[in-house]
Amino acid sequence: MPYILIQITKENVSIQQKQQLIQEATELMVRVLNKDSATTFVVIDEVETDNWGVAGETVSTIRKRQSLSI
User: Fold this and answer.
1) Which residue, among 31, 52, 39, has the nearest Cα to 4 in the 3D structure?
2) Sign of the alpha-carbon dihedral angle for 38, 7, 11, 69
């Protein structure tokens, strides 16, 4: 009974994109590990950018800096 946790930053991911992630992650388990799709669980955890850090900074800070340089 696979449990797949996908963590992404909360930045305008559409319902269709989430559905595609769930479908393709499930298909990967079926294809590679021969798991039953009926017992494969996929959870998408959307994390606020203030709560996700990279290289000592929050993603919010990085995104703000990037928007200023455009």
Assistant:
1) 39
2) negative
pLDDT per residue as tens digits for the range 15-45 = 999 999 999 999 999 999 999 999 999 999 9
- Asked whether the beta carbons of 40 and 26 are under 8 A apart, the reply is yes
Among all residues, which ones are annotated catalytic? Answer: 2
Spatial neighbors of 49 by CB under 8 A, at least 6 apart, are 9, 10, 11, 58, 59, 60, 63
Q: 3-state class of 42 per DSSP?
A: strand
- Rounded to two decimals, what is the model's pTM? 0.86
